[in-house]
Structures are given as structure tokens and as C-alpha cells.
Amino acid sequence: MPLSLIPFLLLAVPLAEIATFVVVGGQIGVLATIGLVLATAVTGSILLRIQGFGVMARIRASLDAGGMPGRDLVHGFMIMAAGLLLLTPGFITDTVGLLLFVPAIRDLAWSLVRDRVVVAASAPRRGPGGRTIDLDADEFERDTPNRRGSGGDRLN
């Protein structure tokens, strides 16, 4: 998104939300409008919790299988954005937020950004000779200069 659009959106979105509040409030009443906004906030928090834990489980399963969870990371980001949009008062943001909770919409968005997303992984730290050294707490102790005089670390 070009940076020149951000100030326009920061002004246009709240104005559109206010206009929508006025129109909806005129049709169904003020209390019903406030109730509807509160209901979408509660619905958003529930959906965020349910779908968020599901995505986290898929990311964990993908990492455990040795794969890169690029799609699931993007889905997780979209679910987080959807929850944030539903918690924000307004009918336009609620509509966009509800659409982002639909998996088919997220898959469509993923297909549009898939070629632009790069997932980089870091290699585990290796010890001498290319082997991974994994120590438990009882296998390692740090010597202090006062106790041993060497000031170095020691493996048991």
C-alpha cells in the first residue's frame, strides 16, 4: 500500500463509520445500534479465541513435522486482524472482520500474497564438529574465579 493512502484511510474510515452509525441508528434506533456493536465485539472475541487456538495448533503441527507454516502464519495474522476489526466499533470494520474469519476468504487472500511472503528459518546452533550439544541443568555449571580460579565453564 502506498504511504500516500494511509492518511486518506485514517480520515475516510472513521467518517464512513460515523455515517453508517447515523444511517443504522436512524433505521433501528440508538439502543439497538449500540447493542449490535457490543454483540459484534463479543462475537469477535469468541471467534478470535476459537480460530486463533486452531491456527496455533496447525502451526505447531507443521513445525513438528519439519515444514514451514507460511500459510498458517498468514491465516493467524488475518484472524488477529479480524478480531481487532470486530473489537473496533463500527459496521464497516465489523463486516471486513467477519469476512476475514471465513476460511475461504483467507485462502483467497493467501493465494494473492503467497508469492510475496518469504518465511526464513534459522538453523539450530551447532557445537564443534557439527553436532548439536544439548545439556541439562545438572550437566553444566559455571565456575566462578573465587571457587576454582579458572573462571571458565565446565561440562560434567
- CA(first)-CA(last) distance: 56 Å
Strand order of the largest sheet: 1-2
Task: Give the helix level as a range of percent.
Answer: 55-70%
| Count of DSSP-assigned helices | 6
- β-sheet strand percentage: under 5%
Q: How is the quaternary structure best described?
A: single chain
Tally of domains? 1
Low-confidence stretches: none
Order of helices and strands: HHHHHEHE
Total beta-strand segments: 2
Q: What's the overall average pLDDT, rounded?
A: 81
Radius of gyration: 25 Å
The computed structural class is mainly alpha
SSE topology sketch:
Blueprint (H helix, E strand, L loop, with lengths): L4 H24 L1 H35 L5 H18 L3 H10 L2 H11 L26 E3 L2 H4 L4 E3 L1
Antiparallel strand pairs: 1-2
Helix pairs in contact: 1-2, 2-3, 2-4, 3-4, 3-5
Explain this structure.
The protein has helices spanning 5-28, 30-64, 70-87, 91-100, 103-113, 145-148; strands spanning 140-142, 153-155. With 156 residues, the protein is mainly alpha-helical. The protein has one domain (7-122). A two-stranded antiparallel ribbon has the order 1-2. The radius of gyration is 25 Å and the shape is elongated. The N and C termini lie far apart (56 Å). The model has no long low-confidence stretch (mean pLDDT 81).
